[in-house]
Specification:
Shape: globular
Largest sheet: 6 strands, antiparallel, barrel
Number of helices: 2
Strand order of the largest sheet: 1-2-7-6-3-8
CATH class: Mainly Beta
CATH architecture: Beta Barrel
Number of domains: 1
CATH topology: Elongation Factor Tu (Ef-tu), domain 3
Structural class: alpha+beta
Length: 190
């Protein structure tokens, strides 16, 4: 890797502390990088992750910030920012990975993936809001494990889509695996 064109930052970077606004409640307890799922093929891991995305999860917002939810039920989808609390500290340092652990995919920098393997494993996902009951949001599409701390919630805006976006072939393969599985099981994407 040629680093001759890299520029050192001279800006001091202080540590940042987050206080979660809530917690995830669901039945997902084994991560894709965990002992059980980590031993599966990437296709089997993708299928398992897809199953996880189809289940209903609850996001329980702390009572002292629950007022921040007012009006959220007017949105169909939300962006959830969370912390993968069970991700081992020693696994946060790899800077390059094979996506989904598949050696057939190129070795890429973690910033080119959605992998939790990253220096600061702050994760985001778009979910469908099923219901709000007080300080509890029921959602589908959440790939977080049970008890994951929720850092923030934002409404998903359709204008956030980028019309001229492109992705590498390996990413198309991953998305095709999820889409084909959805079609094979006759699931509605709406």
């Amino acid at each position: 890797m040629d680093t001759s064109e890299y520029v050192e930052s001279d800006v001091r970077r202080p540590a940042i502390q987050f206080i979660p606004v809530g917690v995830v409640r669901n039945q997902s307890r084994d991560a894709s990088w965990g002992e059980k799922l980590g031993a599966l093929t990437w296709e089997a891991r993708a299928a398992r992750m897809k199953e996880q995305l189809e289940t209903v999860s609850e996001i329980v917002i702390d009572c002292d910030v629950a007022g921040a939810l007012d009006g959220i039920e007017d949105f169909s989808h939300l962006v959830i920012v969370y912390w993968p609390h069970l991700f081992p500290e020693d696994r946060r340092r790899p800077l390059r990975v094979h996506p989904m652990g598949n050696p057939d995919f190129p070795l890429v920098g973690v910033f080119a993936t959605h992998s939790p393997v990253r220096p600061n494993p702050i994760l985001i996902t778009v979910v469908r809001l099923v219901a709000r009951r007080g300080n509890v949001l029921s959602v589908t599409g959440l790939d977080a494990l049970d008890e994951s701390p929720v850092l923030d919630i934002k409404p998903y805006l359709p204008g956030q889509e980028v019309g001229d976006a492109y992705v590498p072939d390996w990413m198309k393969t991953l998305h095709r695996e999820f889409s084909e599985r959805e079609e094979r099981h006759g699931m509605d994407r709406s």
